Structures
1.
Amino acid sequence: TVGCVVVDSQGHCAAATSTGGLMNKMVGRIGDSPLIGSGTYACDICAVSCTGEGEAIIRGTLARDVAAVMEYKGLDLQEAVDFVIGKRLDKGKAGLIAVSSKGEVTCRFNSVGMFRACAAEDGYMEVGIW
Amino acid sequence: MGGWAIAVHGGAGVDPNLPKDRQEQATRLLTRCLQIGISALRSSLPAIDVVELVVRELETDPFFNSGRGSALTEKGTVEMEASIMDGADRRCGAVSGVTTVKNPVSLARLVMDKSPHSYLAFSGAEEFAKQMGVEMVENDYFITSDNVGMLKLAKEANSILFDYRIPLESCGAAAVENPPLHMNGLPISVYAPE
């Protein structure tokens, strides 16, 4: 699975996710990536793209949950991402990338690693696997 | 306002024994795609255009599990899916079960922009793709020899796997000698990193 999340200079957020799914999957299997709210979500607060065990991400409505806890619990982006990965994955392994309308960017995963790269206008840049 | 920001991912659940050269290949690809996004943001492209642009690039490179290089179904074919969402007005588009569309994320964008719906799947998505005139290819364009090998392994293990590419020395007998981490009930060594 691959994904991208962006907040532009106007503060508008967007997210996109694309995948081939699981190796040896049944024909017709649909995972989390095309399900808005599970693998992908964006609103006026943040944008999120998820990857990992699709069925666990679906059960946890992971992408939407990040936005929901920011909106209803008042958490900032990092707190929301930590909460969702820590509490909402139901023993599944997954990761996500997220940006906020304030220009924050973060990623979090509970798997062994996640291929990711982040950058911000203030010069921050990180590329990592582990 | 905090300025622009961007993040890109190529999948989770990486084999801890991924060879150095594969790690370097992955980081080079991620860096290249990140730079494409950064250039687009510096050119004041809106967020929705930037995410589509970057994911198209990731779909075209066969390294990760999307577009070319996608995981295979039990029948050895490719079925892809993608979604895109614009946070400004929460418009969204998604496709599933696409088999001949070169860039599924762009088809998802067209569902969002040019159809009255949010999600199209299988034959309906393919028909919409033809109507929209997107670039279409044969299904075998997306199939790589690495993935044919991984499907064979998966069938031998009688399992459904995350599509992660692994070095051969990290599976089979070598994996048995060093008790593996587990994910989804299966040893991490049978997963190939994306």
2.
Amino acid sequence: APSSAPSSAPSLPPYFIKGSIIQLADGELKRVEDLKTEDFIQSAEISSELKIDSSTVERIDGSHTSNFAIVQFSVGEHRAQVSVEVLLEYPFFVFGQGWSSCCPDRTTQLLELPCTKLSVGDVCISLTLKNLR
Amino acid sequence: NVEPRSVPVFPWHSLVPFLAPTQSD
């Protein structure tokens, strides 16, 4: 039978739910709500393939009617422009601040993840591939 | 009988969006 389930209710990945266990690169286990900026930086330093990049929020276009937002970032030292479409409650990790989303009330309601409002100018943690020789 | 539930463990990098800047050269 063809699936006619509405596709208008996408779900967030399970690892953003409060209490989810996250393994850092050194093997340490932490709850998602306890992660610090240093955890990401140190994990990336250990990683042989991934490096942390700074992604500055340049623009946020969103509406509560669509449940989606388009977030435009300026990524890395070359300030490459990257846009991503995410659910309003999708959390990004802001340097020195923690989890932030376009709609922190929804994030807290759906995930119980403490969250602040993502704003233009925030610098988020993102990943790129290390240059492999 | 209560079976122990395995708790999922997620790798740290799954939490971070992978934003690969385009290389101009």
3.
Amino acid sequence: MNVFRLTGDLSHLAAIIILLLKIWKTRSCAGISGKSQILFALVFTTRYLDLLTSFISLYNTCMKIIYVGCAYATVYLIYAKFRATYDGNHDTFRIEFLVVPVGGLAFLVNHDFSPLEILWTFSIYLESVAILPQLFMISKTGEAETITTHYLFCLGVYRALYLFNWIWRFYFEGFFDMIAIVAGVVQTILYCDFFYLYVTKVNAVQRFQ
Amino acid sequence: CSFGEEKDEL
């Protein structure tokens, strides 16, 4: 555990909670892509199956349970409790175009051809592109509420901090996981355009176009 | 490195 890893995890947690609270407080999920949230729930489910097979630390176990729980709570709020406010007409990204190729890639490029390892690899690849339905929705409607942009910003910061974490671990621990690093770089790049808009527009005019 | 072993990252 290093400072980049810890702040990355906390930034990730902040993003997840910001989104949950926003939906809960406004009683609305307008502008939020339910499809991205389904993908994140799938990412956490397939990645954290090792909760059942191995214990790493109390921190690790607690964070995994919180991430999975919040992901399903968010999906529940969007598709059940506040379904009437869900903007399905603008959430039109075809997620099978992500899930199917990512599933194929996880079968072909992995560290070990075993069910848990393939599911872990699938989750790593899927996480790198899971935000695309949300970014697609924003590009389609041409706007996002400020709080939604804070959510995306925290998610992007989390990814960037994980890159620094890997650089740290490479130098100080000799740790090097090519699958996680390549997927992490791809994921961070997807947020770069958004970062630029966030810094130049959101903080200036509080409205994001 | 710990390929295929315990994964401590989230």
4.
Amino acid sequence: RSSQGRMLSYFGNS
Amino acid sequence: MLELRLVQGSLLKKVLDAMRELVNDANFDCSATGFSLQAMDSSHVALVALLLRSEGFEHYRCDRNLSMGMNLNNMSKMLRCAGNDDIITIKADDGTDSVTFMFESPNQDKIADFEMKLMDIDSEHLGIPDAEYQAIVRMPSSEFARICKDLSSIGDTVVISVTKEGVKFSTAGDIGTANIVCRQNKTVDKPEEATIIEMQEPVSLTFALRYLNSFTKATPLSDTVTISLSSELPVVVEYKIAEMGYIRYYLAPKIEE
């Protein structure tokens, strides 16, 4: 099973 | 006061066609350096970043930094009323809650004004650090679009692997599997037909094809596409916008559990 990553776990709020 | 005059109005039409499937509402940021946008799709899995530098406009007046919230579908509806050879001017007066798109035909015998209400969109601006990528593939954009389209008829996800052999796109589904390998090829007539692979180290990541197919809507903007991969980061799919800037798509990988 693979889960879809999310943008916010890579790029924080600037 | 904002007045941006783009002689190659067709570029703006293509930019909207390249974003409106992925993003519904977004803020366009105008500053002295240029006209930009950064927005995530509704599921926060993908992000699009647009930059049109001020030098690329025939006339660029932006008295103070301005952020204009727009519904991209509505904006696209208006821009589709512009001819492909029209000059497009984007205008907004200070303090007003609308933006005007002016279309001028090449011989100035037809001038159209479309005014659209602006929206309040509270979008979070993400910090995207410059990164070193383990592998960077530059290839014809039509080739990449064809691969994504073909593989999505077989499976939902694609494994993109870069080794010294080249870049491999693999998928599997109910009816079977598919593997496409593209090798580096610099011996081509035109530079935009080359496939160039810079690999610091082998990398392999899995992505949802649905998003990659949305990204390839930017194909009309550039003959080539650059795909930057690193095992710890979202993939970056970049289409340069001739002499003006770029449209970059970021997509978070699927994580094997």
